[in-house]
Design brief:
By secondary structure, the protein is α/β, with parallel strands linked by helices. Helix 4 links the parallel strand 2 and strand 3. It contains seven helices and seven strands; from the N terminus they run H-H-H-E-E-H-E-E-H-E-H-H-E-E. The longest helix has 12 residues, at 152-163. It has helices spanning 3-13, 17-21, 24-34, 73-82, 120-130, 152-163, 172-177; strands spanning 44-48, 65-70, 89-92, 105-111, 131-142, 183-192, 197-204. It has a single domain (3-204), classed as 3-Layer(aba) Sandwich (Rossmann fold).
């Protein structure tokens, strides 16, 4: 996967994305995660990989300072249309090279983005960089099972799935090991499909 390929593939996905990934189990998981998350008035919140705005639909954004980024113009266009007239700032930006200042946001949300970007490690590093000390990073994404390899079937289909714009084989534990001095895991729970999708909340250490 690379940015240019992802931009093209999500141009194709954009008209159908909500029909597949904002209904049924996906919608229920998002409701469970984001409608029950407590945000504080006037918090600066960054949504990384906002897509069509599916997460934003579950958040009462009226008293929050929200910035939402995505690399796909087509996905951003659909998100903007949903929240026309709102105060949400939508920007086209590479999640692996964000233009924000260090320690700029109180909360960072990364939903189905680590499994999509070409370099998940760089993306996680960037999300940690722009997060304030003691800030919260909320992740909803798919990862390979803890302490297990992928099944032979998933290994076989992984290259094809990646061509469709996502990776089913990201190892979160290995990924976090590279950032454990910056981020500590506050919560890690299965979200759907027998734990393939997980809700993970990390806090940024105050000394960083």
């Amino acid at each position: 996967m690379n940015n240019h390929w992802n931009e093209w593939i999500y141009k194709l996905w954009a008209p159908f994305y909500d029909k597949f990934f904002n209904t049924g189990k996906f919608l229920n998981a998002r409701k469970e995660i984001f409608s029950k998350t407590h945000f504080v008035k006037n918090q600066r919140i960054l949504v990384v990989g906002v897509g069509t705005g599916a997460e934003l639909e579950q958040i009462d954004h009226t008293e929050l300072n929200i910035t939402a980024i995505d690399y796909s113009d087509d996905m951003l266009k659909r998100a903007k249309a949903k929240f026309n007239g709102s105060s949400i700032q939508f920007l086209k930006m590479d999640a692996q090279q964000m233009s924000f200042r260090d320690c700029d946001f109180d909360v960072v949300i990364g939903s189905l983005v680590l499994s999509v970007v070409p370099d998940a490690d760089t993306c996680l590093k960037e999300m940690a960089r722009v997060l304030k000390p003691n800030g919260e990073l909320i992740i909803f994404d798919k990862f390979k099972p803890k302490d297990k390899g992928l099944s032979p079937f998933k290994k076989a289909i992984r290259p094809f799935i990646k061509r469709l714009g996502t990776d089913i084989g990201i190892d979160f534990e290995k990924l976090h090991d590279n950032h454990k001095e910056t981020l500590f895991v506050k919560e890690d729970n299965p979200a759907m499909l027998n734990g393939m999708y997980r809700k993970i909340i990390l806090n940024k250490v105050s000394k960083y």
